[in-house]
Amino acid sequence: MYIETIDIRTSSRDEMVDITNQVAQAIRDSGIAEGVVTVYVPHTTAAVTINENADPSVVHDILAGLDKAFPWHQSYYRHTEGNSAAHIKSAIVGSSVRIPFQNGKMLLGTWQGIFFCEFDGPRRRKTVIAIQ
Ligand code: ZN
């Protein structure tokens, strides 16, 4: 197994950062031609997902939809840090994705990209890329 950790600096509270190229680079660095790459986010207020990276309005709409479903302020939140919405979004979106690759290339669909999802930024974040 080959593991690489990348640093991500986010610039707003809610943001989706396209990390497809960094994951592709990690696969090249690994020298492994065929296998599965796991992209894992070790944070409780961030996540990772695969979605469209062609039309940027898709990212806008995903973030807007999550914000509407899980507003920043709710009278029933108990978590005193005040970022319960970010924890909920992180739980819903998930902390890892797995993508098979062949001949060194991920088998992503034409419109798919891998996104680091920030829900309580701006912050310095990490993402783990594990290749096997
Ligand atoms: Zn918290």
Determine the number of helices (DSSP H or I, runs of at least 4 residues): 3
Alpha carbon gap, first and last residue: 5 Å
What's the CATH class, please?
A: Mainly Beta
Whole-number tally of structural domains = 1
Task: Report on the biggest sheet.
Answer: 5 strands, antiparallel
User: What's the average pLDDT?
Assistant: 98
Query: Which runs of at least 5 residues are low in confidence (pLDDT < 50)?
Result: none
Q: Strand content of the residues, in percent?
A: 35-45%
Strand order of the largest sheet: 1-8-3-5-6
Strands, total number:
8
CATH fold descriptor: Jelly Rolls
CATH architecture: Sandwich
Order of helices and strands: EEHEEHHEEEE
Description:
The chain has 132 residues and is an alpha+beta fold. The chain has one domain: Sandwich (Jelly Rolls), CATH 2.60.120. 27% of the residues lie in helices and 37% in strands. It contains 3 helices and 8 strands, in the order E-E-H-E-E-H-H-E-E-E-E. The chain has a 5-stranded antiparallel sheet, covered by helices on one side. The protein has a 3-stranded antiparallel sheet with strand order 2-7-4, with helices on both faces. A hairpin with a 2-residue loop joins strand 5 and strand 6. The chain is elongated. The mean pLDDT is 98. Bound molecules: zinc ion (ZN).
